[in-house]
Design a protein that fits this description.
Length: 490
């Protein structure tokens, strides 16, 4: 497979005037059309997906090149296919969700807002732009996608592919640098969806607020893993290693640190090290291992490790005899690293890692874990390994997170029919079924209630089952973000 010959675009070519003109054209087309029919919306979704799927080989090859190393199969599996599944779900329910909702003395008409902007993240640049876009299209909106600036060549391929099937008045893809992203967040849109870091998310929200543009932010966080005394250590080590190393750890839902009881620490670390060695004994030089996305982030992850070691942390030896420890500067690959005894003042204790590095802490009482998590911003995901017992129920009650998966990691983000997102600085990005309809993201009929997706999964035995547990809490979301603008029902 070879990378497409599409040249790297001129990232300075898109001006503020160009962007403003694009918004005006989309809004004029939206008003002229009226409320789009279900058939029209499905047609737009299908054409957008066709553009992505038809050019998936070129898109995957381009991302492989721009990352330095990213297996095309990973891109197709995790960046392309999820949107196909989401579109199939929308197709099934769109006509029913469009119907007015009868209330005492009247009804609520579900109306689109108009022009929705989508700013995706670089770690899964297709999934994190196409998925929100199809949600917004299903709700009857026009969409402008700002593709992540880390991948200009891939953005250019996507822009050309989308233009084959959709006019810019329906869906447009914008490619540009950080200045373009800033201009994009300042546009007079009807809604803005952003996926990225909390630091950039604050800037985006501030810029959008100047035009009173409602925003949906899906931001990062440090996701804890708790290994309880009842945990199956083989299962825990296998799944923590696999999900920590997914996309070289560049996933917002990756485990970011582990708490294990003092009594189980030695056994767990031994099994975790063995699982990592089984994945790739020489990751810094192995073909097929995903690179850190660019030099800046490669250096950042290495600095986090060096800072922790300089302050007293210890590195767990993961090498087989005769192998090297370290990283490859030329390919930006980093050897998986386990750190223990990480001091509280180490940068890695507070900063999201986004690399194949995992601190491991010990505890003797669950209250220590609960206090540690509670003193920090709520994570996007939290992971519990152990039995469905009183300790799990205590953990669910006294911690707050976007989602909890039991005896696995990341799985709650893929549970169909449930919300995905977080609380506090994380917010919500994706909704279940009809919730997507009322807005591209936050659901007005959940206002004032906890919307944490409690995906509880038991695996590794014949009676595998999936269920949800909901607890108390409060979240702040906006009513009518891109759907019904007539009412807000609490």
């Amino acid at each position: 497979m070879t990378t497409t010959a599409t040249p790297t675009p001129d990232l300075q070519a898109i001006t503020a005037t160009d962007l403003e003109d694009l918004v005006r054209r989309q809004r004029a087309a939206f008003r002229a059309e009226g409320i789009a029919s279900a058939e029209t919306r499905i047609g737009r979704i299908d054409r957008l997906l066709l553009a992505v799927v038809k050019h998936s080989a070129d898109l995957a090859a381009s991302l492989d090149s721009e990352y330095g190393s990213r297996p095309p199969a990973l891109t197709k599996a995790l960046d392309v296919l999820p949107s196909v599944g989401a579109a199939a779900e929308l197709r099934e329910g769109i006509e029913e969700w469009m119907k007015p909702e009868v209330v005492a003395g009247g009804y609520v008409q579900k109306r689109p807002l108009g022009v929705v902007g989508v700013v995706g993240a670089w770690n899964f640049p297709l999934e994190l732009t196409i998925h929100p876009a199809i949600d917004a299209l299903a709700a009857g909106n026009r969409v402008i996608i700002k593709f992540p600036d880390f991948h200009p060549r891939t953005g250019a391929i996507l822009a050309a592919a989308v233009a084959e099937y959709l006019p810019p008045e329906e869906v447009a893809v914008v490619v540009g640098d950080l200045e373009t992203a800033q201009r994009f967040s300042e546009l007079d849109l009807d809604h803005l969806i952003f996926t990225g870091s909390p630091a950039v998310g604050r800037k985006v929200a501030e810029a959008a607020a100047r035009n009173l543009v409602p925003t949906t932010l899906e931001l990062g966080g440090k996701n804890p893993v708790v290994i309880s005394p009842s945990a199956d250590l083989d299962l825990a080590a296998h799944r923590v290693a696999g999900t920590r190393l997914l996309n070289a750890g560049q996933v917002c839902l990756c485990p970011d640190y582990v708490f294990v009881t003092s009594a189980l620490k030695g056994a767990f670390l031994e099994k975790l090290a063995a699982e990592i060695r089984a994945v790739s004994p020489r990751p810094a030089s192995a073909a097929g291992v995903v690179s850190i996305v660019n030099e800046r982030n490669h250096s950042r992850v290495l600095r986090l490790v060096e800072d922790a070691l300089s302050k007293g942390a210890e590195r767990v030896d993961l090498t087989d005899p005769g192998t090297d420890v370290g990283s490859s500067t030329t390919s930006r690959r980093i050897d998986p690293t386990i750190l223990r005894r990480v001091p509280a003042d180490a940068l890695i204790a507070d900063e999201e890692i986004f690399g194949p590095v995992l601190p491991v802490y010990t505890y003797d009482d669950l209250d220590e874990v609960i206090d540690y998590i509670g003193a920090r911003p709520a994570p996007l995901g939290a992971y519990w390994f152990g039995s469905d017992d009183d300790e799990l129920r205590k953990f669910l009650e006294f911690t707050t997170s976007g989602g909890v998966t039991v005896n696995d990691a990341i799985a709650h983000g893929f549970l169909p029919g449930t919300p995905f997102g977080g609380v506090g600085q994380l917010r919500d990005r994706r909704l279940p079924r009809e919730g997507r309809f009322r807005s591209p993201l936050p659901s007005p009929d959940r206002r004032g209630r906890d919307d944490r997706c409690r995906a509880v999964r038991w695996s590794g035995r014949p009676d595998t089952r999936i269920g949800r547990v909901r607890g108390g809490g409060r979240r702040t979301d906006r009513c009518g973000a891109a759907g019904s603008t007539d009412t807000c029902r609490g």
